[in-house]
Amino acid sequence: AIFEEYYKLLTRYADYLVENGLDPAKQLTTDDFEGPLAHNANLAAKAIIAIGAYAQMCQLGGYDPCYQHYMSIAKNYSSIWMKKADDGDHYRLAYDQ
Fold first, then answer.
1. How deeply is 40 buried, as exposed, middle or buried, from its count of CB atoms within 10 A (0-12, 13-18, 19+)?
2. 3-state secondary structure of 62
3. Helix/strand/coil for 39
4. Which parts of the chain fold into alpha helices (H)?
5. Residue 41 vs residues 21, 45, 83: alpha-carbon distances, Å
């Protein structure tokens, strides 16, 4: 299956997101009306979703330990994101703004 063919590459990308996705460094994004922005909550949410999606691919591919590992991270990061991005009646564009 295609997942097995790209498993190593996808795992490297998932690991990159685990390492860098929860609190992104200063960079341009689709929110470029703000210019380069660090701690972008929108970009972090996308990384968390991607980590969870990778976990689901692992599950479908029969890689249960991989699924457990990455789904646990995605759930944990989701909880952290909800607290860091919360701004009352909406979510912040960046954690520190």
1. buried
2. coil
3. coil
4. 2-20, 41-60, 64-85
5. 10, 6, 11
Which residue type does 52 have?
A: G
pTM: 0.92
Q: Scan for tokens 């990384």, then name that residue.
A: 47
Q: How many residues are recorded in the chain?
A: 97
Q: Are 21 and 77 in contact (CB under 8 A)?
A: yes
Exposed/middle/buried for residue 2 (C-beta within 10 Å: 0-12, 13-18, 19+): exposed
Contact (CB, 8 A) for 29 and 43:
yes
pLDDT digits (tens, 9 = 90+) for 58-92: 999 999 999 999 999 999 999 999 999 999 999 99
Angle, to 10 degrees, between the axis of helix 2-20 and the axis of helix 41-60? 150
Q: Residue 58: which of 2, 5, 97, 7 has the closest Cα?
A: 7
What's the pLDDT score for residue 79?
98
